UniProtKB/TrEMBL annotation:
This protein's name: Non-heme iron oxygenase ferredoxin subunit
UniProt KW Membrane keyword: no
Domain of life of the source: Bacteria
Domain Rieske: 5-100
Keyword line: 2Fe-2S, Iron, Iron-sulfur, Metal-binding
Source species: Ruegeria spongiae
Length: 102
C-alpha cells in the first residue's frame, strides 16, 4: 500500500480552487471543494497541459489548452477532447496538513 505523504498546510490551499504542488518528481493538482480535497496528476492526459492553469468550478477542472474537462472526484472525463480517466489520488487532512497517498 502506498504511503501517506505530507504535502501542504490545509490553510495554504486556495479555497474552491486548484493548487499546484510537487510530490517528489511529480506535479500534482490539489482541488479544494466544499465536499473535500481531491488530488490528481497536474498534467492533462490529453496533451500534457498544466491543469493548474485551467478553470475549476464545483468538481470539474477544465483544461486550459483544449478545454477538455474532468470530474476531480474520480477522474472521469466529462468534456471532449478528454476521453481517458484522469489519475487521481486519495487525500486526507492530519494535524492541519494535507496528505496524499501516492
Ligand atoms: Fe488538456 Fe488537450 S491538453 S484537453
Amino acid at each position: 500500500e502506498k504511503p501517506w505523504r505530507d504535502v501542504i498546510k490545509a490553510t495554504r490551499l486556495e479555497k474552491n480552487w486548484v493548487t499546484r504542488v510537487e510530490i517528489g518528481p511529480r506535479l500534482i493538482a490539489l482541488y479544494d471543494t466544499p465536499s473535500g480535497i481531491y488530488a490528481s496528476l497536474a498534467l492533462c492526459n490529453h496533451g500534457g497541459a498544466d491543469l493548474c492553469d485551467g478553470y475549476f468550478d464545483g468538481h470539474v477542472i477544465e483544461c486550459p489548452l483544449h478545454q477538455g474537462a474532468f470530474d476531480v472526484r474520480d477522474g472521469t472525463p466529462v468534456s471532449a477532447p478528454a476521453t481517458r480517466v484522469m489519475r487521481v489520488f486519495e487525500t486526507r487532512v492530519e494535524n492541519g496538513m494535507v496528505q496524499v497517498r501516492i
